[in-house]
């Protein structure tokens, strides 16, 4: 495809956010008789699903301690459910299995899920929780669990397949997708902060509005837009913190146990929900019985024929260097620096065995190889969805991205002048206003 010299809407990033925005914007333009997909160009420096969306575990859930996140996720689940076949979406449900320290948090989530009409079951009490899990998996053996939140909706999707499904929907609406095109900078008119053109390695494209959904590469685009690398934040006590870094990176730890996915079928022979276990019980090695950790830990896992095994992950860790020094490229499995090692395999397979007896002799089947990826996080670890430079709509997902397929629909509304109340809690202004999202007891920074 030849590089156009001008287009009304430029979307940067051919992952979950960019392509969801393109598809929804195209359909909304047509519905309003304001154009169609021919008014939209998606560009990506690599290829479709070549970034974080292409290595995502694919879990879709509502389980969040933050009310605003729950409402936003319920909206996204609606979008996943709108075309499960095209999105390669498996609505098997999701289970949050937790210790006593998290019980009240999970009880609150359940009550607020009921308030928004999101179907789930809540089981509390150690014996009741154990019995509930044994009724699903007869080899369940995790100790110290006092609550189970069983979401009946949610599940998982196959990562690259779902992104190509979005690409097809976008192209069917006339959207053009130009891969192998790297953004080098932005232009604005004299006396205005609004962006008038995007500069790429293939030439300059004039535009009226820009949508940015580039995941871990947002730090670089942010800098090109001359947005602040350090900000002021008011904490929950009203104290102001100045010169706080806008971005930080976390390394995401995920892998695959190379066994038949049917190994994880439920007692009644069905595909199980996605399992997420947080525990404050000491975790010991399944190999030599040595202590791995006595701090709170968490894992998630699911059978996945796309990965040809049991796929999942554990708590990420913060990259111990300033964001500007982190090398995002080469990304994911191609990185030489940010890939999982034996320590993750040891911890995760031991945790699987802690949960279910069927995994006690399976650690040797962990698939060796480079997996994982970087996530670009905001100061409070939650997304920023806002407009900058007058006409640039930024989707800074703080690594909540893949499951948020519906954000593109809401951003498309905002591009066309219709503000979304679901996005309001995620404005950039929350930092200086002190309107931060509440923090849970979970070992995961995004829960």
The amount of helix comes to 25-40%
DSSP, total strands: 24
Mind describing the biggest β-sheet? Answer: 8 strands, mixed
Spans of at least 5 consecutive residues whose pLDDT stays below 50 are: none
Strand content: 25-35%
CATH architecture of the domain at 1-90 and 154-244 and 380-447: 3-Layer(bba) Sandwich
The level-1 CATH class of the domain at 1-90 and 154-244 and 380-447: Alpha Beta
Helix count, DSSP H or I runs of 4 or more residues: 11
Adjacency order of strands in the biggest sheet: 6-7-5-17-20-21-16-22
Molecular shape? globular
How confident is the prediction overall: mean pLDDT?
94
- Tell me the name of the CATH homologous superfamily of the domain at 1-90 and 154-244 and 380-447: FAD/NAD(P)-binding domain
User: Do you know the CATH topology of the domain at 1-90 and 154-244 and 380-447?
Assistant: FAD/NAD(P)-binding domain
Distance between the termini: 41 Å
* SS-based class: alpha+beta
The radius of gyration computed from the alpha-carbon positions, rounded to a whole number of angstroms, is 22 Å
């Amino acid at each position: 495809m030849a590089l156009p010299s001008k287009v009304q809407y430029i979307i940067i990033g051919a992952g979950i956010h960019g392509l969801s925005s393109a598809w929804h914007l195209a359909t909304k333009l047509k519905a309003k008789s304001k154009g169609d997909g021919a008014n939209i160009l998606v560009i990506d420096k690599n290829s479709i699903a070549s970034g974080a969306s292409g290595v995502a575990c694919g879990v879709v859930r509502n389980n969040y301690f933050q009310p605003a996140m729950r409402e936003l996720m319920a909206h996204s689940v609606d979008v996943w459910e709108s075309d499960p076949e095209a999105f390669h979406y498996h609505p098997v449900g999701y289970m949050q299995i937790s210790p006593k320290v998290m019980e009240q948090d999970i009880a609150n989530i359940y009550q607020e899920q009921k308030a928004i009409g999101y179907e789930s079951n809540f089981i509390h009490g150690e014996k009741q929780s154990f019995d509930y899990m044994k009724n699903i998996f007869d080899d369940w053996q995790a100790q110290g669990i006092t609550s189970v939140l069983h979401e009946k909706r949610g599940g998982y999707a196959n990562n690259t397949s779902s992104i190509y499904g979005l690409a097809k929907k976008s192209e069917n609406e006339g959207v053009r997708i130009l891969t192998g095109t790297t953004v080098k900078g932005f232009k604005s008119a004299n006396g205005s902060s609004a962006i008038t053109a995007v500069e790429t390695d293939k030439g300059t494209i004039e535009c009226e509005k820009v949508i940015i959904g580039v995941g871990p590469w947002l730090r670089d685009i942010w800098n090109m837009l001359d947005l602040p690398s350090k900000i002021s934040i008011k904490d929950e006590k009203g104290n102001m913190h100045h010169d706080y870094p806008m971005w930080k990176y976390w390394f995401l730890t995920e892998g695959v146990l190379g066994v038949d996915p049917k190994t994880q079928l439920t007692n009644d022979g069905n595909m199980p929900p996605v399992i997420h276990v947080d525990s404050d019980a000491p975790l010991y090695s399944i190999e030599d019985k040595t202590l791995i950790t006595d701090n709170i830990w968490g894992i998630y896992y699911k059978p996945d024929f796309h990965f040809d095994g049991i796929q999942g992950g554990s708590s990420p860790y913060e990259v111990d260097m300033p964001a500007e020094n982190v090398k995002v490229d080469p990304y994911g499995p191609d990185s030489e620096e940010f890939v999982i090692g034996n320590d993750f395999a040891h911890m995760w397979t031991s945790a699987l065995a802690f949960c279910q007896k069927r995994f006690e002799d399976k650690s040797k089947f962990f698939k060796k190889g480079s997996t994982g990826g970087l996530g670009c996080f905001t100061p409070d670890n939650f997304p920023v969805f806002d407009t900058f430079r007058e006409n640039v709509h930024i989707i800074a997902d703080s690594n909540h991205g893949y499951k948020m397929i519906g954000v593109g629909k809401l951003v498309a509304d905002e591009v066309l002048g219709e503000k979304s109340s679901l996005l309001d809690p995620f404005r950039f202004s929350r930092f200086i206003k002190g309107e931060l999202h509440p923090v849970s007891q979970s070992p995961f920074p995004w829960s």
